[in-house]
Amino acid sequence: MSSELCSLLLPTILCSATLSFHAFFALLFVAAISSYWLVPGGLAWALSSNKNTISGPSGFPILGLVFSFTGALTHRVLSKLANGLKAKSLMSFSVGVIRFIISSNPDTAKEILNSSAFADCPVKKSVYELLLHRTMGFAPFGEYWRNLRRISATHLFAPRRIAATGEFRLNIGLNMVNQIKGLMESNNAVEVREILHFGSLNNVMKTVFRKSYDFGKSGDANDFEVEELVKKGYELLGMLLLDSKKILQFSLYRLIFYNSEIRMKLLSTFIKFSM
């Protein structure tokens, strides 16, 4: 590299014969990484074959917005980012090499949910391990899925069936109100998410299995066991697609997913035994 070119690109101290060659290629490497990292949405969207640009934060190099998911208020963090970028209708971001989109606009969300790309998205390995790949929530769109929807509309969500469980839903609502009142009187604080979680879970268990549970209390071992089972299922289903066959799968990711595979096998065995 000539001394004139070196003085333009690098600090004077790096323009020696021994350092200029390595420094030049180091700059090229940093520039190449930055060209991927600074793409709207981050690394995963830069590697995507889809070149339609969607506004979104770049996040940290390689990691993307992974640290946004470590707290309890992820939705607020993402909402603040969307407001700052004026991308409430649609925002893209990356977590490693996995692409994400979020929307705070109901019309955009409806369009996404009705699109064939969303309906035909690949099913995660954890869904297969938990025996959920044939359920209506995860089954691929087609004749089988339409039959499931028809059966659920005719039987599970029929007006007569909904009316029959109306009293139970009323009791769940009253119980939730009493729990909130009791917590405010004793602790002066309420964790609403936990109350809503147990209330909705009890409603599902009563509607589907005709059984009611007293979640959140240590009176019945069976209630506690069902609660732990559901909690583990949510944890496994919420994992960040660590089974996807993409590049840049780190050894740490493999170790985490190996541990989750063992847990999924134990959980699916328990489900089979319970059924």
Automatic annotation (TrEMBL):
Membrane-spanning intervals of the chain: 12-39, 59-78
KW Hydrolase (keyword) present: no
Cofactors named for this entry: heme
GO molecular function: heme binding; iron ion binding; monooxygenase activity; oxidoreductase activity, acting on paired donors, with incorporation or reduction of molecular oxygen
Keyword Oxidoreductase assigned: yes
Key words of the record: Heme, Iron, Membrane, Metal-binding, Monooxygenase, Oxidoreductase, Transmembrane, Transmembrane helix
Family stated for the protein in its record: Belongs to the cytochrome P450 family.
Coiled coil: none
Protein's UniProt name: Putative ferruginol synthase
